[in-house]
Amino acid sequence: xxxxxxxxxxxxxxxxxxxxxxxxxxxxxxxxxxxxxxxxxxxxxxxxxxxxxxxxxxxxxxxxxxxxxxxxxxxxxxxxxxxxxxxx
Length: 88
Description:
single chain; alpha+beta; Histidine-containing Protein, Chain: A; four-stranded antiparallel sheet; globular
């Protein structure tokens, strides 16, 4: 299991479009991809769960990848989040 603390940088937070990008990226991997936000544990492969969390710009989240391709998942997910999920 790998984990990393990241900051959401896209200006509008994780609303529908960036949440969709995040979920589609997570679905490419066999590993479980979880976002910890406060007391919440969000399954990143569910766009509805990601959107419902209400994560805003500047929020620190903990990304957790666990499974056979966890290293590749962590690298790709980190790059997607740090690049603003296509919004920057």
